[in-house]
Design the sequence.
């Protein structure tokens, strides 16, 4: 059962009571950063240590940096809590142990909108390995069979250990509601961006062509230019 505490204006969500105190320590910044993995205006990710155990700590800053996305948090649980609930459900109820476990989520709201958000994930000793792309495609097919999509299917979001175990990371593991559109969009992301020679695993139905059309639209030069320009302005502090 999902549990929640309030601490100094923050809400900490967890399933295991052990992580109540861990969440408080994170809010108090009572942890050691072992390695910075990403520190941008969009995201902060670090390997940290608390009470002798390693974790991956992530802040998804775009959720509250972009006004329209922040406004939508008035009506949503937020990325961190959604990730905690969805991944935990897949692991506990569907035995999908291919997902890296999420231990807790933290957020803080002002005027009903999220202004800070983070979650804590298990540390898995692995790296991206392009030689495992076919296995990752097969693994994602099993995820799609559960009615769930990744959202950013690329080799960088699959960690492979020295023994060949694979863990899926960096996904909110959301449900697919719009037919097989999201399943095709996942596979097309891998094929177009990271694995052109990939044998496409699904029948090319109407959902496929809708997803392909969306991918092509987003790759049009003027669309990419607009996205790049907006990112530049956001990095300068513009609220767009």
Sequence:
């Amino acid at each position: 059962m999902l549990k929640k505490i309030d601490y100094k204006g923050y809400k900490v969500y967890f399933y295991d009571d052990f992580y109540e105190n861990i969440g408080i320590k994170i809010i108090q910044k009572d942890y050691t950063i072992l390695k910075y993995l990403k520190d941008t205006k969009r995201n902060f990710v670090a390997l940290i240590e608390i009470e002798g155990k390693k974790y991956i700590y992530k802040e998804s800053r775009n959720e509250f940096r972009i006004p329209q996305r922040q406004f939508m948090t008035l009506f949503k649980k937020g990325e961190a809590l959604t990730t905690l609930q969805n991944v935990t459900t897949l692991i506990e109820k569907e035995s999908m142990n291919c997902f890296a476990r999420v231990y807790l989520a933290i957020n803080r709201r002002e005027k009903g909108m999220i202004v800070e958000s983070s979650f804590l994930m298990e540390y898995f000793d692995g790296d991206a390995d392009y030689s495992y792309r076919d296995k990752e495609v097969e693994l994602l097919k099993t995820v799609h069979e559960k009615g769930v999509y990744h959202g950013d299917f690329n080799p960088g979001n699959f960690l492979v250990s020295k023994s060949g175990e694979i863990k899926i990371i960096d996904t909110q593991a959301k449900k697919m509601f719009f037919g097989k559109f999201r399943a095709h969009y996942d596979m097309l992301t891998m094929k177009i961006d990271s694995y052109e020679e990939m044998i496409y695993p699904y029948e090319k139905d109407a959902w496929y062509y809708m997803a392909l059309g969306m991918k092509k639209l987003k790759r049009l030069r003027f669309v990419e230019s607009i996205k790049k320009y907006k990112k530049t302005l956001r990095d300068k502090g513009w609220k767009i």
